[in-house]
Amino acid sequence: MEPDISEDQAAIVECTIRAVQDIAGVLDRKHQILAQRTAELHMRIDDICLPVDSEDYAPPELLTLNVGGAALTVRRSALTHFPDSPLAWMFSGCWDHVLPRDTKHRPFLDLDVSWFKPIVGALHALSRGTEPHEVVVPVAHLAHDDRLGLRACAELLGLTEALRFEGGVAALTAPPPPPPSPLDIHFRKPCVFSSEFRPVPLGVQTIPAAAAPIAAPTKPVVHTPVTMTFSEDMAALAAPAAALARMQQWLAQEVDSIATAERALQKQNDSFALECAFMRRCGADMDSAGERLRAWLQQQLQQRSAPAQQLEHYGSTSGNDTSTDNNDDIVSIAFTDVLGHGALSTRRATFLQFPASPLAAKYAAERWRESLSAEARDDEGRIYEDHDGDCFRRLVNIMRLRALVRRGDCPSGALDACCPKPEATAPMRAMLQYLMVEWGELCSPFARRRDTPELYKA
């Protein structure tokens, strides 16, 4: 006896509905997990970052930066013109409390100002509404080492693809193409290749034309008519089938919405992780970010409540503010250049790359400021280095480039094939010999690929 078709179909529909209900329960649990992950991420962001959209803190539009010892006044809207760039992350206002700052409470960038200033000029022009094709970063006036620094700076800040450089990006660091060889073959017209086969006469014989390919026999397709007879009881399954169809449509929408929310959350999580990693590379202390945030907000509230005593308050709290802990890591140096005076600022880690050098021994101690006598400082408190000013600035810039290459902040690898030119002047050789720095070791990160293990060592 054959089974009743309607009973089998009803059982299948019932099982399907139960399965759909189970899937709906799984989706509800995924919604809960997704909401929990979102709340955890937002809690982490609120604990580390400044609430820039609140009334407690309003990021100032005008910023005065300490770029390698030079004061540079910029607008925040220009620095954040490209929102997805690391430069916009740094000055979005969320990280103002953890930015490395100098003794005057200015954000510090360990870059040469000749690298950063052309980029800032292009960003200012773009933020004022200038057409992108009209904005070009000038590089022709820069020396070879400064072109390397400008390229490294643009890659560090994520602006290599966003800005147009004079002569193209490759002109910043790529060497000129080699001159053409006399044996090079050049075609006046483009060559056209054809796959057509034609017989070519060879004496009295000719090569026969290629035979047509033999068509493989194809298996005939047999169309078998299938006739299904439904009983009158199938009409009772119309309503469950329609409900099941609506449930499936709802499930499809729920799955798409959950997938979209997961992708958005993952993107936000990855972006925040990249921001944290970039701020760590820039010298920000992320371990005590919560304490810095609370101290920063408390200072802002106190400054608003007593604007007349702002300077007095700053002088009394600057020593206790946790954001000034990294001031001891920033070294301000004075030297004598061709103009009679020169100054720069850099991090202590710049000089610690060569442990055997007198510079490393001078700035390695934890309380190095107290070990220096008052005679070694100028009237602004900067440490005086008795070296040729141009040579010393170039040495510091090469050390900065070494730090960028070792941290892996230059993703395109343009610095792999380029290196600073060798020392050509007697003062440069004398200074390197006095400081016990070998030129080959100084330029070693530029002469080899950065994917070697030793370049990732601290």
TrEMBL record:
Domain of life: Eukaryota
Gene3D superfamilies assigned: Potassium Channel Kv1.1, Chain A (3.30.710.10)
InterPro entries registered for this protein in UniProt: SKP1/BTB/POZ_sf (IPR011333)
Protein name: Potassium channel tetramerisation-type BTB domain-containing protein
Species whose genome carries this gene: Tribonema minus
